[in-house]
Structures are given as structure tokens and as C-alpha cells.
Amino acid sequence: QHIVSEEDVNTGDTVEIGFNVSDNIGVNHSLTEFNITGNTSAELTENDNWYNYTLDVPEESLDDIDFNATFYDDAGNYKVSDNETINVSDDIEPSYNQLNEVESANTSENITIEFNATDNIGVETYNITVDGEEYQMENNSGNYTYNISIPASDSGTLTSSITYNCTFGDAAGNINSTGDVGIDVSILPIADFSANVTRGTTPLGVE
Q: In what helix (H) or strand (E) does residue 34 lie, and over which residues does it extend?
């Protein structure tokens, strides 16, 4: 036997597995046994001395794929191949779509940042950095949200802009980021006055 296969593949790849088999009285193809992870009905196709299988690597899993084969001749002699392992990696980064794009806001306002994010092996990390501080977003069935409370004009923490950056990662370490996104903040005026007297008989002088 001579086995040809990939040792390392990525999710979603299509690869060929081949066995080169010969026997002095011929290989009995009808008795060939082929076992591969995830496909109990897998069969090899015959082409001269080659026995081949086309493997469609699952997109949603990082599990290794194991396979072996057993070949017989007409006399009942058989040979079992070594157990082979194909290591599965993933290089597909998460994709995202912003559901509500906030470009401007006012002091004292609460705004919600919301994204939908998906990945072939699942989104594992979903963080947002707001003005340099990182937080975890809330996950609601694939929609990721974070609420930002803008300080009031008289809070002592005035800001005219907010910058945020959302990052989404999967189990393989692939990361996709929105990059820095700015929100312009309008600082609303606060009415602030007093009077020395507020009630009395007419005429009433007030400062």
C-alpha cells in the first residue's frame, strides 16, 4: 500500500485521499472497507491500482479526521492500512453587520451599539473598547449589543466625542474588527439660575 493524503487542511477544503494497492491475484474491490470520521457510508472509488476518496472537510468543526482502509484479495488475504489523522485548522474570520449605526448623540443620552456577527465555527469572543476601556458585549442569539451612557453636561466629565472599536473572534483565534468608530457628542446647555425671592405681594422686586 501507498497512501496519499493531506496532513493539514482548513475547514471547507476539498482534498483527495488515495491508496495505491496491488496484489498478485488482484484486489477484490467489493470487499474493500473504508472508515473515516463523520461518514459511516463512505466508499472508495477504483481507478487501476488507485482507490480514492474525495473529502469535503466540514466548515463548522475543528475536530481531527481519522481514516483507515482494509483491502482483500480473492484468496481472503487482507491488509489493514495504518490509522491516518488529518489535522483541521480554520482561517475564516468572523463576519459582522452593524444593525444600528450611531454617528451622533447628546449629553445625558444612552445609546446602543448593536452588531450581528457569525462565524463558521462560532463566535467565541465579542468585545468593545470605548475610549480605551475594553468591555464584553451582550450576546442575544448572535446579536451583540453594548449600551453607552453619555455623561450629562453638568457631570464634570464633558466629552465632545466617543470612540469605540468592536472585535469578534472564533475558537481558532481569527479576529475581525470594526476599527475605530467615532461618535460626535453635542454638549447641551444646562439652565442654571437663582432668585433672591420667589414669591410675595405686588409689587415685588426680584434679583
A: strand 33-36
What's the CA gap between 36 and 175, in Å, rounded? 31
Question: What is the value of pTM for the model shown?
Answer: 0.81
* Across 72-100, average pLDDT: 96
* Run of H or E residues at 20: strand 14-20
CA distance 79 to 86: 21
pLDDT, averaged across the chain: 95
Rounded Cα gap, residues 201 and 29, in angstroms: 114
What 3-state class would DSSP assign to 39? strand
CA distance 115 to 118: 10
How much of the chain is in helix, strand and coil states, percent to nearest 5?
0, 50, 45
Residue 66, classed as helix, strand or coil, is strand
Could you please report the per-residue DSSP string of 119-157?
-TT-EEEEEEEETTEEEEPEEETTEEEEEEEPPPTTSS-
